[in-house]
Design goal:
By secondary structure, this protein is α/β, with parallel strands linked by helices. The protein has eleven helices and 16 strands. It folds into two domains: 8-137, Four Helix Bundle (Hemerythrin (Met), subunit A), CATH 1.20.120; 142-344, Translation initiation factor eif-2b, domain 2 (Rossmann fold). 41% of the residues lie in helices and 17% in strands. The strands form four sheets. A seven-stranded mixed sheet has the order 6-5-4-7-10-15-16, with helices on both faces. A hairpin with a 2-residue loop joins strand 15 (324-327) and strand 16. The structure holds 5-S-methyl-1-O-phosphono-5-thio-D-ribulose. Residues 48-51, 93, 157, 159, 163-164, 169, 196, 235-237, 247-248, 313 line the site of 5-S-methyl-1-O-phosphono-5-thio-D-ribulose (MRU).
Length: 345
């Protein structure tokens, strides 16, 4: 929510989602009144980005109770069924499971009266939405201090307003730095195969008037070699207890470039992205997506029929490559295991 577009909106009886599959060509808001539709929207990437899918799932659960109420069914059964459905949509971003768990906790102990449960759960989902925007603003304030006043920042994927309830994590840091008067130029990795960088990050930054340059993923190395990058800021889908970071595939390569070229590699993520139960990043489930995302570009085949395809949606960057993790509670520095334990104590 930068004032220029809305990633999602709650209408009281329906969830509106900006269809991210058709950006930047079309700004189309889709309306959902059933949890099945929300689950489908998450699976097919109408809505994507770790915090955004968590918030959407929370509203999906409210819609389950609303539907049960209309049909005169016991609300708890619909809620539980929807929770299972929503949890099965995408495996890597922990925010999805975090939001479902938070809604489950809010549901526990509620009366059988569907009207009362409906209004309590709606309040919880709205709180998750509002807290996400507030966390992003806070991350922006903490993270902006890490960026030099006149700098070129590279980002991968889209960790902006589109990936959250509003403002963004990595792009929130960029937005806050720009708002504080820093001159920031963003190099945007196109982010094959789904093109979140080209289609979404470039669009968002241009809407905000933040200077940016789009590159294909393979061009990043040459920019580092030419000393054109002062810092990297990315988001995260899940951070393990030791600070290993799962983010969009290609992030690891960027982190290695940072290490080799002695450029700081910053990760901006809310506490809802940290999964302290996992000891290391090796335990993070990595989503494998449809081969057609790699063999086709904008619906047109670009690879031979029958070619084998490897299409993991995420990779894991070891904690030792991460210069700092920006959270809404402040900036974590290595060693991460202790810093993360302290945060959750
Ligand atoms: O597959 P996506 O588009 O959902 O992947 C999104 C990312 O990898 C983002 O960088 C991450 O969720 C952080 S969003 C604030």
């Amino acid at each position: 929510m930068t004032g220029r577009f809305r990633t999602m909106a709650w209408e009281g009886d329906a969830l509106l989602l900006l269809d991210q599959r058709v950006l930047p060509a079309l700004e189309s808001m889709q309306r959902f009144t059933e949890p099945v539709g929300v689950a489908d929207a998450i699976r097919t990437m109408v809505v994507r980005g770790a915090p955004a899918i968590g918030v959407a799932a929370a509203f999906g659960l409210v819609l389950a109770v609303q539907a049960a109420r209309k049909k005169g069914r016991p609300w708890r059964r619909s809620f539980d069924e929807a929770a299972v459905l929503l949890a099965g949509t995408r495996p890597t971003a922990v925010n999805l499971f975090w939001a479902i768990e938070r809604m489950r906790k809010a549901a526990a102990g509620l009366p059988d009266d569907a009207a009362a449960a409906h209004s309590r759960l709606e309040r919880e989902a709205v709180a998750i939405f509002e807290e996400d925007v507030a966390a992003n603003r806070s991350m922006g304030a903490h993270g902006a201090k890490l960026l030099p006043a006149d700098s070129c920042v590279l980002t991968h994927c889209n960790a902006g307003a589109l990936a959250t309830a509003g403002y963004g994590t990595a792009l929130g840091v960029v937005r806050a730095a720009a708002a504080a008067g820093k001159r920031i130029h963003v190099f945007v990795d196109e982010t094959r195969p789904f093109l979140q960088g080209a289609r979404l990050t470039a669009w968002e930054l241009m809407k905000d008037g933040i200077p940016c340059t789009l590159i294909t993923d393979g061009m990043a190395g040459t920019l580092f070699a030419a000393k054109k990058i002062d810092a990297v800021v990315v988001g995260a889908d899940r951070i393990a207890g030791n600070g290993d970071v799962a983010n969009k595939v290609g992030t690891y390569g960027v982190a290695v470039l940072c290490k080799v070229h002695k450029v700081p590699f910053f990760v901006a993520a809310p506490l809802s992205t940290i999964d302290p139960k996992l000891r290391t990043g090796a335990e993070i489930p990595i989503e494998q997506r449809d081969p057609s995302e790699v063999t086709h570009l904008m619906g047109k085949r670009v690879a031979p029929h029958g070619v084998q395809v490897y299409n993991p949606a995420f990779d894991v960057t070891p904690a030792r490559y991460v210069s700092a993790i920006v959270t809404e509670k402040g900036v974590l520095k290595p060693p991460y295991p202790g810093a993360i334990r302290k945060l959750f104590r």
